[in-house]
Design a protein that fits this description.
By secondary structure, the chain is α+β, with helices and mostly antiparallel strands. The chain has helices spanning 3-20, 65-76, 104-107, 113-129, 141-159, 166-185, 223-229, 238-255, 263-290, 301-313, 319-330; strands at residues 22-32, 38-44, 51-56, 84-88, 93-97, 188-191, 200-201, 209-210, 217-220. A hairpin with a 7-residue loop joins strand 7 (200-201) and strand 8.
């Protein structure tokens, strides 16, 4: 963040100081994410809050409209999302209540996982039950394809300097077509799009707190489940993942979500959706390094690649993709 932007933020907070009893000297970085957004935490003497969060989203890079719209949508659905206390959309600042600083990633272990994931499953189903068409952007073929193209453009070419043969290019194109066909055939619901352990906060009430939802779309019902249980930042034995996905399927059907009658079909959809996501994520992690100078995600590439290889190997029609992925593993940087 530039000093000028920090000064603008401090001037805005000064104007809010009396209303929210802010202690301006306590302003400190809370976290940063993979975009241009930054977060700060500040102490408040207001008895309801204690601490508050400020989101800094430069309008030219991260307009606040989508965040505000989705925040209200998810709040109405009963999810524990940040409450917007003050907004300055023109300069790109929000004052939010604080959902704490313990992420799911920090709290998850063998003992806590079942309870935490049960809460996350409940919140996910609540969000999906609220779904209506024509409210959020469609997760359509063009968007799915653009995301998949990040894999050859950024992971293969920019990161690994791999040039595919004409045969491999065709194999990749064919695999992408199969993946997109599966994704588009799934029932459509609201999709958070980053519903994973770094964006879920452990909260005392209405756990989890849900963050980073501004890119939400209307799309495949298994997408957020794949984000949650094929998480780029933490992995689990396959039998535990299957057990959690079964619970999601059972509870979702009971609640009236448009789930397949056969769990095998749901799990296949979950796997193929996860594969689309992992190919995209490989491209994004490479792009964050090469374009944005952020190297913190490079260490997460091997797990994402392993997920993708394992899934592609389980389906005969995706074997050519598995070979390409396995080849990239030998040229890791």
């Amino acid at each position: 963040m530039t000093d000028s932007r920090l000064n603008t933020l401090k001037n805005w907070l000064k104007a809010l100081q009396a209303n929210w009893q802010l202690d301006l000297d306590t302003l400190a970085p809370a976290s940063a994410d993979a975009s241009f957004r930054r977060y700060f935490r500040i102490q408040s003497q207001n008895p309801k809050f204690g601490t508050l969060i400020i989101m800094d989203a430069p309008p030219q890079h991260e307009p606040l409209d989508a965040f505000i719209r989705v925040d209200l949508l998810l709040s109405e659905a009963g999810l524990n999302v940040p409450k917007i206390l003050e907004q300055n959309a023109s300069e790109g600042f929000l004052l939010l209540n604080d959902l704490g600083n313990q992420t799911y990633l920090a709290a998850l272990n063998d003992q806590t996982a079942n309870a935490l994931y049960q809460n996350a499953t409940h919140a996910l189903i609540q969000m999906q039950l609220a779904s209506k068409p024509n409210i959020l952007p469609n997760y359509d073929e063009a968007l799915l394809q653009r995301e998949l193209d990040l894999f050859p453009d950024w992971y293969l070419k920019a990161h690994l300097q791999i040039e595919l043969t004409d045969i491999q290019k065709q194999q990749l194109k064919d695999a992408f077509a199969l993946i997109i066909e599966n994704n588009l055939a799934q029932a459509k619901v609201y999709v958070h799009r980053d519903y994973h352990s770094r964006n879920l906060m452990v909260t005392a009430e209405n756990n989890p707190g849900v963050l980073d939802f501004q890119d939400a779309v209307y799309g495949p019902i298994t997408y957020d489940a794949a984000s949650l249980w094929r998480d780029a930042y933490i992995s689990w034995p396959e039998e535990r993942v299957i057990d959690w996905v079964i619970k999601f399927w059972e509870q979702g059907r009971k609640a009236g979500l448009p789930m397949p009658d056969d769990f095998g079909q749901l799990y296949r959809d979950f796997e193929w959706m996860g594969l689309q996501r992992h190919l995209k994520v490989l491209g994004i992690f490479a792009r964050l390094f090469h374009r944005d100078g952020k190297d913190g995600y490079l260490k997460d590439i091997p797990l994402v690649l392993e997920y993708a290889i394992a899934t592609a190997n389980r389906y005969i029609e995706l074997k050519p993709l598995a070979r390409i992925l396995e080849f990239t593993r030998t040229t890791q940087k």
